[in-house]
Amino acid sequence: MTYALIRADGLDLRAFAAAAGLHPELVRRLVALGVLDASCDCSGDFWFAPGQLAVVARIQRLRAGLGLNYASIGLVLDLLDRIAALEAALRQARRSGG
Amino acid sequence: MAGDRDFYQILGVPREASQDDIQRAYRRLARTHHPDVNSDPAAEERFKDISEAYDVLSDPQTRRRYDAFGPDFRQVPEDVDPETWRRAQAGARATAGAGGRAGGGGFGFGTGDEIDIDDLLGGLFGGRAGRAGRDRAGRGWGPVPGADQTAEIEISIEEAYHGARRTVSLASPEGTRNLQVSIPAGVTDGQRIRLSGQGGRGGDGARPGDLYLLIRIAPHRNYRLEGRDLHADLRLTPWEAALGTSVALPTPGGEAKVKVPPGTSCGRRLRLRGRGLPNPRGKPGDLLAEAKIVVPAKLSEAERKLFEQLAATSEFDPRRGR
């Protein structure tokens, strides 16, 4: 029998799917499509950071609201993340009086 | 809800617009007002209106019924003749005065609510678009949590210094929402305050998103803000600047005494440590008073004599040795 030496941080596939209200197979597909990030442990199981729940919600809204396919959702997620990072940098620069 | 607003008006298309025109208008507006693209709380309401208008106008059959019966089309049974309906409505209005609309609700124009496993997993690799895509996506995904929103709030330097309680009015699909917000002392320009669960509404009871209040500090007559440091002009007479003095300077935290050393020239900055904006997590900012020497525009006879005497006596030349 194999025991994990370190407890993985985050949610396993089943817990993540339950929290997101999705079928685990759909979650697995979203990881395969590269729109959701998951880490893989030594036994091949997926682990998700809790922040990925917000990403799932965003994927749902983009798909439902704009009818985007998954390739374009991946691109939109990347662009929205970059805009958020740039806006945060701009706010930081303003706060430090730069 | 779009309320009584015309669906064509919401999409910005004429009544005779083709299905392609309607789809094009919807796509353009949805890109602008989608809650993940536009974090303004008012955009959520607008997006819901646009989606509702598109749901009705993108389906030719629903559109025909909307054209025939107007905003009440959901309450009209399938087999009613539009002309008969119009006459009945006119008669009802004539007898009951202002024609009240029957309670809303009725039936949705979407399909049933059953969840199909094929819908759940099918078409994952396809590029579905349009109403059908949105309906299917909506059904397969279940409740969708709300998006995070951002709203700006402008406060004064005094409010940033002392902290404040403000009421923020936000547009939402349920009408205007008023939120009581506590702004902590020491906020800076561009800082965000997170209000958990006050963002976009989630679908089907899913959790709402968060609202981020972006703090903007309004320009002030007396101060200029750089981070947590306050800059102020310190107006001095020529003799105060030459001989040194102690001047009372108003600050957001109350009056401060500034010691002006003798021989202070214009532009010299005098630092009052810790008299800038407070910092909840460390050192407060400083107040930097910049000397501005002000000469009387009109001299009295005595002043003129004294200045002439000074000019004759002094050997000081600020332009020498530059």
Task: Note down, in words, how this protein is organized.
The complex is a heterodimer of chains A (about 100) and B (about 325). With about 100 residues, chain A is mainly alpha-helical. Chain A has 4 helices and 3 strands. Chain A has a single domain, classed as Multidrug-efflux Transporter Regulator, Chain: A, Domain 2, CATH 1.10.1660.10. Chain A has a 3-stranded antiparallel beta sheet with strand order 1-3-2. In chain A, α1 crosses α2. The longest helix of chain A is centred in the C-terminal third of the chain and has 26 residues, at about 70-95. Chain A is globular, with a radius of gyration of 17 Å. In chain B, the strands form 4 sheets. A 4-stranded mixed beta sheet of chain B has the order 6-7-11-10. In chain B, α2 (about 20-35) packs antiparallel against α3 (about 40-55). The longest helix of chain B has 17 residues, at about 40-55. Mean pLDDT of chain B is about 80; it is low at about 100-140. Classes of the chains: A mainly alpha (about 100), B alpha+beta (about 325). The interface of A and B includes residues 61, 71 and 76 of A.
Set out the fold topology.
The complex is a heterodimer of chains A (98) and B (322).
Chain A: E1 11-12, H1 13-20, H2 24-32, E2 39-40, E3 46-48, H3 52-66, H4 70-95
Antiparallel strand pairs in A: 1-3, 2-3
Helix pairs in contact in A: 1-2
Chain B: H1 7-11, H2 19-33, H3 41-57, H4 60-69, H5 82-96, H6 117-121, H7 130-141, E1 149-155, H8 157-162, E2 164-170, E3 177-183, E4 192-195, E5 211-217, E6 223-226, E7 229-236, H9 238-243, E8 245-251, E9 254-260, E10 269-272, E11 287-293, H10 301-313
Parallel strand pairs in B: 1-5, 7-11
Antiparallel strand pairs in B: 2-3, 4-5, 6-7, 8-9, 10-11
Helix pairs in contact in B: 2-3
